[in-house]
Fold this protein.
Amino acid sequence: MKRLLAGAAALATAFVLAACSGGGSAAGTNAGGGAVAAAGTGGGTPTPTTTTSATPTPTTTESSPTPTPTSTKAAPTSTSAKPKPKPTPKPQPAADPGVPCAAAAAAPGTAACVDLSAHKAWILQGGKVVYGPVPMLPGRKGYATPTGTFHVLSKEKMHLSKEFDNAEMPNSVFFYPGDAFHTGSLSVYSHGCIHLSAGASLKFFNTLHVGDVVQVVP
């Protein structure tokens, strides 16, 4: 009798358990080792759980560097410059040995030479005679023409000598105070000036400049 009651109790317990699960499999692991279904709505086919595995996007860690030139060609430079040719100096004319005025012959520009004893006069350019000798007459006794090396002081086309009653002195080139080359008589001595013919005085007037050397030798 006890054994019969125990069997009935076990059967009742199994019936209760079956009623609580709604006819489906209980949550957890079943006796057959199958997958456990998720709780559904009336025992439908359980939705399998999908495990999502995200594949990471590979990241490029290396970047190709831009190649840089290792050598730069420099612009060619001239290492040797051609020297400029030096200008050839113009040859200076040699001094005329027939002129007795060393200072006038050594002057770089225009100069005049007067030889009182020879009654001659010259014009020189760079030591070379460009005009003359021409005849001249110096100062008379008591009005001697000064000797030495002078320079042209002034020029006057028509000078009037106040000292000698406004006497005309055409083409006057003064080289000493009161004394000048000018047109005058070649037969009458002067009062210290250098008498020249009209043509010679014009040449001296047009050629000589203020500052030019005038040398008068005895």
